[in-house]
Target: 3-hydroxybutyryl-CoA dehydrogenase
Amino acid sequence: MSIAHGIKTLGILGSGQMGLGIAYVAALRARVPVLIHDRSEAQLKKGLAFMDKLLEKDVAKGKITSTDAKEARDRVTVVLPDRGLVGLRDADMVIEAVSENLSLKEAIFRGLSAELGPEPILASNTSSISITKIAAATLPDGEGASSEKGKKSASRVVGLHFFNPVPVMKLVELISALQTSKDTLDRARAFAIACGKEVTTSQDVPGFVSNALLMPFINEAIMCLEKGVATRDDIDKTLKLGMNHPMGPLQLADFIGLDTCLAIQQTLYTGTGDSKYRPSILLERLVDAQWLGKKSGKGFYEYPA
Ligand code: 3HC
Model:
């Protein structure tokens, strides 16, 4: 018997490429009302404009009707920065999709727990950070991890890892924290399926399955470039034509964002203590230069505005 997700309103925190993509599939495919919040009004505007463009393109391709597109767009409500997290109070599930930074995520989950109370499911779209650590940040003031309130609060936290571009990629990786309840896991899985996704599960290890495999591969490709083993174009061409990857690893790194790649690789390195995960120095330098890939106009490749 399939479990109902029971989500009547979804909250999303972060309107970058991931948050926006999640809003798109939730509004269009799961057909739930979405509240989307970001601390940057400019980012919210940019995200919503991109969503309008995607919907228009899907109508033009005949994938959806203009009524589907209008209904999906009408389901999305922007929560402006000045309203803060309290603007997500009507949500019965919130998916956090902000940058890959543990202290930022801990502060957000602490805030969500304080503002929204113990009921809503709190999901993180983190690519690599421990869901168990994030869940521990939700303990209400004065409550220990083993008090009834403490256990309940942490038990509704779960990892729901989408892939970029969210409207296209078929997978969601589901991660249980040590504290996550079965009900939370079942409902989060049902919600991902309602968004049109297939679901795999991973234990809460650094990078989960997806990035424990993908990011060392990308890091190794950057090290090949760094050592002069091959040119940028030949590294990417080898993987595209030799292995049928849709993008070469350097192009994919630019697409994901070099800051995100570095943050994930650092989590693998510090989380395991294994030197095989040492981030490439070239990757660090590119991020130092703020050459972050497609989103900043320059990474391994150039992206004219
Ligand atoms: N948003 C929405 N849709 C998009 C899109 C975007 N940003 N980019 C492309 N698309 C759609 C296009 O509209 C098109 O749709 P259609 O089939 O209905 O016409 C379809 O995707 C194919 O696009 P294109 O023909 O323009 O280009 P490609 O055939 O080259 O495909 C791609 C583009 C889907 C991005 C493909 O290159 C690809 O699959 N690349 C690998 C992506 C990948 O590995 N993603 C995972 C990254 S890891 C991750 O996200 C995890 C994180 O934790 C790091």
